[in-house]
């Protein structure tokens, strides 16, 4: 963590932020500040992809909890390592289907729209409903309840 902070902030700021990071009560606020700094930065720091995604996700103003932000960051990180992310309701189930629906709508919505318009594939709203239901089925109701907000957040902050 200290290395990432050192790369993003000038020395005097980095020392203050690292000291605040040690206080668990202020940690989530520090995450938000680091997330803002990452958005202003031209590129991500290669060594810490999941941590950086988590800091950016913590900028959401609708998440019910810190754990919801962590879970969404892990979903995004999971999606970053998939070659074929397209959800297929005949093939994917449970967590795999839920994650794929959110990632695809958050990052590749225009591709879904083109497939729907040109090839009679299911509509984005179909995948949204399947994603919401899948998150509820796997016990991640908080993400299911905020599915549309997460979808929009991902397209706004990561694309």
Number of helices: 10
Give the proportion of residues in helices: over 70%
Radius of gyration: 17 Å
End-to-end separation in angstroms reads: 25 Å
The helix-and-strand class reads mainly alpha
| Number of E strands | 0
Tell me about the biggest sheet?
A: none
- Number of domain units: 2
Topology:
Elements: H1 2-8, H2 11-21, H3 27-40, H4 49-57, H5 66-80, H6 94-107, H7 109-119, H8 124-137, H9 141-145, H10 147-158
Helix pairs in contact: 1-2, 3-4, 4-5, 5-6, 6-8, 6-10
Q: Brief description of this entry?
A:
The chain is built from ten helices and no strands.
Overview of this protein structure:
The chain has about 160 residues and is mainly α. It folds into two domains: about 1-60, no CATH class; about 60-159, no CATH class. About 70% of the residues lie in helices and about 0% in strands. It is built from ten helices and no strands. It has helices at about 1-10, 10-20, 25-40, 50-55, 65-80, 95-105, 110-120, 125-135, 140-145, 145-159. The radius of gyration is 17 Å and the shape is elongated.
Which descriptors would you attach to this protein?
2 domains; mainly alpha; elongated; about 70% helix
